[in-house]
Structure prediction request, 333 residues.
Amino acid sequence: MKIISTLLLFFTSTLLFAQQTQSITINSGGVDRDFFLYVPDIYDENTPAPLVFCLHGYGSSASANISYTGFRPVADTAGFILIHPQGTLDLLGTPHWNVGWGASSVDDVAFVEDMIDYVNDNYNLNNDRIYSTGMSNGGFMSYLLACQLSDKIAAIASVTGSMSPSTFGSCSPNHPTPVLQIHGTDDGTVPYEGGPFAEGIDNVLNYWVNYNNCNTTPSQTPMPDINVGDGSTVDHFVYSGGTNGTTVELFKVYNGEHDWPGAFGNYDISSNIEIWKFFSRYDINGSTAAIDEQELESAFILSPNPVQGDLHVKRKNGDIANFKILSLDGKEV
Prediction:
C-alpha cells in the first residue's frame, strides 16, 4: 500500500507541477550530473530567494524523493527555490551520496557547490539562506554538508539519517549551525542507537549541542496524537540558547520506523512543514528573530511587551489583519 500510494502521489504531482520543474544537467568534476530544479511562481527576480536542497535515500532517486517529500507546495507559498539532485551509482550499481561508506570516490560536496553556482548564475539567490535536508542517505549527506560546506549552508535537517563515523570524526563547521533531526525509535535501517555505519542519534545531537553552545537540557513537548491509527507518537525536543540564537531539535517518533512522517509511517507531523518552519528561522548568521521583531515594531503596536498574559495587537495603518503568533521553536501559540 505504501508503494502504491507513493506512485499515485508522484503521478498526480507530476501532472500538477511538470511545467515548473526543470530537469538540469551540469558537469561536475568531469561527470555529467542531474538534478530537478523547481522555481515557484511567486519567485521575483528582484528579491533574493532562499534555496533548499532535498536529497534522496540510498537506492532511491530524485524523482521518487520529489513525490513523497512534498516541498513544492511549501515553496509555492514560502518562495524558496528547490533542488532535488540525483546521486551517482556506487560499485554495486546503487544510487548513493558519498558520505564515507565503501570505496566511493565521487565528490558530492563539490556537486552541491556547482549546483549553488548554477542557481547564482541563473537566479537571484540569497546566499545567506541555503539549506539542506534529505531522507536516510540524504540526511547523512546533509550532515556532511554542514561539516564540509559550512561557509554556504545555513542549517540542515535529517529525516531517518545520521552522521557516518567518518563525518562524525572529521567534522569541522565554521559557524554555529542549526540542526533538526526527525527519527523513529524502531528504525531498522538506520537504528536510533547507531551501528557500524551510523552514529547514534543522541551522540549526533550532543555533538551539535556542544558545538553550538546550546543548553544541554532540552525542552520536551508531546505533539498531538492526531492519527491514533499509525501506531506511533512524537515528542519535540529543543536544545535552545545556542550561539547566535541557534537550536538543535529532534522530533522523536516513538515506534516509528524508516519513514518520512507525513507521507508514510507517522501522520502526527508533516516533515516538510516542520523542516521549513525550522529553516525559515535562520540564515547563515544565526537566528533571524531580531529582524522579524524589527519588522513587527514597524507595523504593529504590541502591548504589553514582554507579555505574560493577554497580548494586545494593533496594526498601525488600519484594522488588524489575520495573523499567527509562533514561539521561537516554531509552535503556534
Summary: The chain has a mean pLDDT of 89.
